[in-house]
Design brief:
Layout (H helix, E strand, L loop, with lengths): L2 H6 L12 H6 L8 H8 L5 E5 L6 H12 L23 E5 L8 H19 L8 H16 L3 E6 L3 H4 L7 H13 L9 E8 L16 E2 L12 E2 H5 L3 H11 L3 H12 L11 E2 L1 H10 L5 H4 L4 H10 L3 H5 L2 E4 H4 L10 H7 L3 E6 L4 E5 L3 H15 L3 H17 L3 H14 L9 H14 L3 E8 L2 E8 L4 E8 L3 H11 L12 E9 L4 E9 L2
Parallel strand pairs: 1-4, 1-5, 2-3, 3-4, 13-14
Antiparallel strand pairs: 6-7, 8-10, 9-10, 11-12, 12-13, 14-15
Helix pairs in contact: 5-6, 5-8, 10-11, 18-19, 18-21, 19-20
Length: 529
């Protein structure tokens, strides 16, 4: 497809921020057909189902699709896979609760939002004035919906955990809000005779004991291989349903189709919610890139992960730990939020790490950052935490450093870093060598290069290894010592020997950090002959 052909084609509409199935279908937005899975979900053996997925992965659209399906809106599904599967199109009373409306709410605000959503359905099915508490109102509402329509009710609860995410790290507010939610959800099990289907979505998992009271019959399908592609976009769907969009993007970016597929894959692919699993792309970022004609970190830009940063502080997790793959048992990452003893479950459930492999013999899963978009976004958010005031000039400095290193000019890159660190305010807890190791780890990740720390060699550990397209840098850091001392350790331990077979020229870099000035004091750069 050339530029002229691309410009003459009707522009496709992308559902960016649109989560209502009826609007997508009636207004001509791109829709990747998931309705075969929707039909399978609606006719599953279990009546109560839960699906956990990261934000911006299409959970709300899935709930809206289920709402349209159970409401019998057959016309919206014309031409989709479900049209050949469903023969009855029975209209059930559907109760849809969107708990994302209660983000950042206190106890009173949460109760008001729950009450308003109940009230909307009570205008349809009536209310007994003796029903005062949310659980009483929900029980009466479900029963009357069944009695007045003669059909079992469908309850859809989207983002059930949204009111709790921002207080996960708090000892005071979390139990209070959790009790409100527990009270609201408590009638669902008792209403089983009046219910056709109950479906909940969310990011984190809370145990049945803490949130769902006696509702211990929810089937969690989050790691069910049958529904691995229920939310998100697969490689097959990109190369079939979205092929015109890839070709148009290739023209805009003046790249080949194969090059663009590679860029999309490295930036937005890499999610696996079970193993084995198809590769799953972030749909929000994918559609944003098609719309804008650029590949950027859209998912991270759509929301600051404040709760993640707070939990990192709580569990004292470093950027290096975030960026390093880890092998864990399933129960260590697929566990309720209130039983977390590490950050791993929240990282996994929120989409900051994903399943990268599985060893059946040991039952160990390998978790790692899914793609470049998430890695860059994480490190960009962490830079101001480790370098106070870095948010203003940090991106510019990183861009200039990236250009310098691309030219194999490490000297210029370190001068830029020295100048930048000298210009930002003092940051607490900078009087130890590991702080500067973390700073360099974050910055080099932002360059898009491979970076690792504490790399083992036969004679010790290298502080930091940076690999670019053309060079491999072996770096040693010293606090309140000069670059000669750092270079002396590299030579004494013969660290470059460990990397002799890497296929790239090896360069030694010794850096001395000045504790008083909070920046680089000196450095030496030597190529290994």
């Amino acid at each position: 497809m050339d530029l002229q052909t691309s410009q003459n084609m009707p522009r496709r509409r992308y559902p960016i921020g649109i989560q209502t199935f009826s609007e997508i279908r009636t207004k001509g937005y791109v829709y990747v057909d998931k309705t075969e899975l929707v039909f399978r979900l609606a006719h599953a053996d279990a009546k109560y189902l839960f699906l956990g997925r990261p934000r911006r992965f299409g959970k709300s659209l899935l709930v809206s699709t289920l709402q349209a399906y159970f409401s019998g809106q057959r016309e919206l599904f014309s031409g989709l896979a479900i049209e050949k599967l469903e023969t009855e199109w029975t209209a059930y009373p559907v109760l849809h609760f969107d708990m994302s409306m209660a983000k950042h709410a206190d106890k009173e605000g949460l109760e008001n939002i729950v009450g308003l959503q109940l009230e909307a359905y009570e205008t349809l099915y009536g209310r007994n004035e003796n029903e005062q508490r949310p659980n009483e109102r929900l029980f009466g509402l479900i029963r009357r919906a069944f009695e007045r329509t003669g059909k079992q009710a469908v309850v859809l609860i989207d983002e059930y955990d949204a009111p709790l995410l921002d207080v996960l790290h708090e000892e005071r507010d979390l139990p209070v809000l959790r009790n409100v939610m527990r009270n609201f959800y408590s009638p669902l099990k008792a209403c089983e005779p009046y219910l056709r289907f109950v479906f909940l979505t969310g990011i984190t998992k809370f145990s049945a004991l803490s949130i769902f009271s006696e509702l211990n019959n929810i089937m969690d399908i989050s790691m069910d291989s049958e529904y691995a592609a229920l939310c998100g976009i697969t490689q097959e769907e990109i190369e079939s349903s979205l092929r015109p969009d890839v070709e148009r993007l290739a023209v805009k970016m003046q790249r080949t189709r194969e090059e663009v597929l590679g860029l999309l894959k490295s930036n937005y692919d890499g999610y696996h919610f079970c193993w084995p699993s198809p590769d799953v792309y972030n749909p929000y970022s994918l559609f944003k890139s098609f719309f804008s004609g650029r590949i950027e970190a859209y998912w991270f830009g759509s929301g600051t992960p404040t709760y993640l940063l707070e939990m990192m502080r709580k569990f004292q997790v470093s950027p290096v730990e975030l960026g390093t793959s880890v092998d864990v048992m399933q129960e260590e990452f697929d566990m309720p939020a209130e039983r977390m003893t590490s950050l791993v479950p929240l990282l996994y459930q929120s989409g900051y790490v994903t399943i990268k492999g599985y060893e059946a013999s040991s039952e160990l899963y390998t978790l790692g950052i899914p793609n470049r978009e998430v890695r860059i976004g994480l490190m960009r958010s962490l830079l101001p935490v480790y370098v106070a005031g870095a948010s203003m000039g940090g991106n510019t400095m990183v861009a200039k450093m990236s250009e310098a290193i691309r030219r194999d000019d490490m000297e210029a890159a370190l001068r830029l870093l020295q100048s930048f660190l000298s210009s930002v305010p003092y940051c607490d807890n900078t009087d130890y060598e590991g702080h500067y190791q973390q700073v360099l780890y974050i910055i080099f990740n932002l360059l898009g290069a491979f970076v690792d720390v504490e790399v083992r060699t036969p004679r010790g550990r290298v502080d930091l290894v940076l690999r670019t397209a053309t060079k491999l840098y072996v770096m040693e850091l010293k606090l309140d010592k000069d670059a000669d001392a750092a270079m002396g350790q590299i030579d004494l331990k013969d660290y470059p020997e460990r990397f002799a077979l890497c296929g790239l020229p090896v360069v030694k870099v010794g850096i001395g950090f000045d504790r008083e000035k909070h920046t680089l004091g000196s450095w030496k750069i030597e190529a290994v002959c």
